[in-house]
Recover the amino acids of this structure.
């Protein structure tokens, strides 16, 4: 096949594939252009998850009418003039590809007016072909309307995910920029519904409250540090406030949202030994660095950067975050209740299922010395004995014999004696199994009793999580919850299943949305058992929680009655068995090991 020069239409669509991956990519490029134009108000409207409409309106400086056609051309930009400018970029955009790429795969309309002009100008671009510039009435600023995205490359439409996933990507993107630019008013409208609105009053904590709720915003720890040309500010969460994935770890470098692995690693190093394995903090951190010391021209979407002094930046971020953690977190101490002979005094139960009680200093010690709930493994040095007394039958794998309670170790494990040896029970995994089987049994009988809350609980979620939960409200109502929408990204919990009496409604709601990855099937197609297991996991009694003798015994009795008492609903073992024979060998009573 002979070598030939590609047509401008084909080359434009190839280039668009690097810049415009999905509707959220369009929103990102247009929002960054608005911020570069000095906008103080940015309004985003979408329809059909951005497939049929993405409109971004701003009150920035605007584009002169005689430059409007040039603005939609490839490699046309006002951000730089020569190659050396690439090494001290101070704007979000600089390549001059965004508008040309977007216009090549959509019907794009640009309406703009500068302050010195009495009227605005309009330009339409259809599939990369620009029309004539027309004079129109318009306010100062720019309105960029993108319709029928990928209409001329239908194969790209097949790679888009479900509407709920695409909407979540847009909401997550704008949420991050709202935190990075608190002096700018952001408004996101999905159809007729406003999903995000900020005041633009430079108060980042107020934006956190709007996104995550007042309780979460109050807990966030402020980071402010400067060192040798580097500046880091923003918020990180305390060790008691975590998520099961890294999706809410946000970094901006010189006002640009980046997904830089080294920065995330430095942050997690700051939390080293303070968080359980598999748990991650919520963060919104903004790093300012001399433009000459960072290269932003290493990725088509500018999502990655390279630092001239990688180790220096890594160490600075780690120290600044660690300093904030130590400044706000008291030094934990081992509870004296774990040593000494007196049994701790039970406080009023606030956990679920059984009336679990909690030692008053539980939360101070929960993060210290506590084993990870997700990564416990049975001790393989010991195996069930094959030399059982003739009158005692060894239990099957799915059943446990009657157990006699001995006590609790480390406020996390219950020790019990059986006819065939010693049992160590993980109280969290065991309670998780008990709750799950009780809930599913009630579900099968279609008789899940519900209990109204004395005062309805109001829960605020991030916009992307709120969208996922909205479609799952029928599931919650089916399982005994009474949840209704209560404003923008806010829900009101009026009742919970009796089984979860005393549990935290916010924990239950977040359990349904926080673990889902971007490419997972939407919530409404998930199996009910999987979602039930997820809620039970969040609401089960935690490791590090002191239980009374009666509570320990009740948990053992409930576990014995389970159909699958040996594992939690996620497959993690609930118990470790040390046979009498293994104990005798350990103590040298039956020869060498």
């Amino acid at each position: 096949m002979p070598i030939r020069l590609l047509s401008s239409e084909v080359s434009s669509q190839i280039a668009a594939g690097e810049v415009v991956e999905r509707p959220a990519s369009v929103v990102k490029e247009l929002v960054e252009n608005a911020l570069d134009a000095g906008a103080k108000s940015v309004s985003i409207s979408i329809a059909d998850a951005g497939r049929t409409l993405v409109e971004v309106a701003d009150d920035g400086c605007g584009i002169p009418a005689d430059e409007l056609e040039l603005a939609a051309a490839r490699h046309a930009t006002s951000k730089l003039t020569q190659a050396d400018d690439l090494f001290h970029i101070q704007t979000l955009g600089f390549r001059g590809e965004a508008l040309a790429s977007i216009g090549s795969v959509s019907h794009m309309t640009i309406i703009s007016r500068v302050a010195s002009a009495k009227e605005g100008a309009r330009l339409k671009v259809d599939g990369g072909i620009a029309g004539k510039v027309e004079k129109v009435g318009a306010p100062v600023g720019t309105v960029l309307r993108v319709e029928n995205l990928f209409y001329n490359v239908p194969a790209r439409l097949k790679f888009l995910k479900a509407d709920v996933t695409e909407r979540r990507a847009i909401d997550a993107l704008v949420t991050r920029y709202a935190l990075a630019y608190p002096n700018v008013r952001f408004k996101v409208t999905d159809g007729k519904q406003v999903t995000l609105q900020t005041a633009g009053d430079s108060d980042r904590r107020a934006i956190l409250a709007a996104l995550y709720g007042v309780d979460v915003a109050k807990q966030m720890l402020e980071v402010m540090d400067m060192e040798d040309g580097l500046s880091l500010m923003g918020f990180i969460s305390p060790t008691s406030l975590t998520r099961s994935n890294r999706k809410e770890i946000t970094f901006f470098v010189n006002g640009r949202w980046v997904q830089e692995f080294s920065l995330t690693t430095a942050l997690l190093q700051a939390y080293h030994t303070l968080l359980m394995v598999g748990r991650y903090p919520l963060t919104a951190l903004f790093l300012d660095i001399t433009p000459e010391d960072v290269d932003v021209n290493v990725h088509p979407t500018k999502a990655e950067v390279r630092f001239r002094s990688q180790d220096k930046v890594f160490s600075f971020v780690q120290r600044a975050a660690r300093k904030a953690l130590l400044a706000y977190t008291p030094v934990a101490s081992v509870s004296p209740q774990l040593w000494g002979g007196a049994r701790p005094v039970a406080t009023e139960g606030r956990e679920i299922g059984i009336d679990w009680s909690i030692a008053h200093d539980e939360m101070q010690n929960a993060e210290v010395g506590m084993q990870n709930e997700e990564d416990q493994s049975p001790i393989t040095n010991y195996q069930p004995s094959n030399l059982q007394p003739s009158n005692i039958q060894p239990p099957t794998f799915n059943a446990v014999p009657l157990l006699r309670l001995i006590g609790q170790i480390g406020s996390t494990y219950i020790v019990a004696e059986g006819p065939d040896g010693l049992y160590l029970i993980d109280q969290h995994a065991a309670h998780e199994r008990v709750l799950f089987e009780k809930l599913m049994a009630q579900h099968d009988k279609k008789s899940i009793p519900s209990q109204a809350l004395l005062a309805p609980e109001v829960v605020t979620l991030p916009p992307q999580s709120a969208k996922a939960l909205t479609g799952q409200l029928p599931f919650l109502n089916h399982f005994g919850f009474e949840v209704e929408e209560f404003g923008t990204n806010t829900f009101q919990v009026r009742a919970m299943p009796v089984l979860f009496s005393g549990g935290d409604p916010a924990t239950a709601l977040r359990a349904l949305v926080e673990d889902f990855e971007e490419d997972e099937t939407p919530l409404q197609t998930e199996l009910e058992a999987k979602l039930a297991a997820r809620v039970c996991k969040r609401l089960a009694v935690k490791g590090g929680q002191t239980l009374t003798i009666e509570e320990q015994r009740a948990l053992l009795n409930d576990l014995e009655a389970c159909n699958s008492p040996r594992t939690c609903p996620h497959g993690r073992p609930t118990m470790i068995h040390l046979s009498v024979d293994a104990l005798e060998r350990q103590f040298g009573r039956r020869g060498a090991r």
Summary: Residues 310-328 form the longest helix (19 residues). The chain has three domains: 8-201, 207-328, 332-376+404-593. Residues 331-397, 517-526 have pLDDT under 50 and may be disordered.
